[in-house]
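Why does residue order matter? Because the sequence determines the fold. Keep that principle in mind as you read this record.
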Amino acid sequence: MKKYIVLLLVTAMAATACKSKKNAPTASSASTSTPSTAPAASSSSPSSSSSSTTPSSSETGAASMTAATGNTTGKVSHKYRASGCSTVIVFMKDGTEMTLIPKDKLASEYDVDGLEIAFNYHPLKMPNPAGCTVGMPAEITDLSKK
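Structure:
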């Protein structure tokens, strides 16, 4: 009797596992239909790029990276160098002074104390570098002189 109950439980568990596996392809079939439209779109992209009416997404991305300017305006500052924190960027956001610690060192042409710059940033979840007690680490992109 116990064997039959155990067998029933195992069969029921296997049937449940099979149902969830059967449901998974239907969910992925929806996602595979999206990629199947993406290759169709990419196959139409070369035809549209050969007619030069619309640049492909890779061309657009490359152009936007070279010609982009930042949406945020701030000043490069060295005021925390004495405490061991190298270059920071200070800007105003909603009436509050914000301090960003660039993840990567700024190019020498931008690493000038008091230089006004335009940039975009993405806050990073990482510890502050040694000596930096003020500010938050951020990835700085689309950097240009103001």
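Confidence is low (pLDDT under 50) at residues 26-66.
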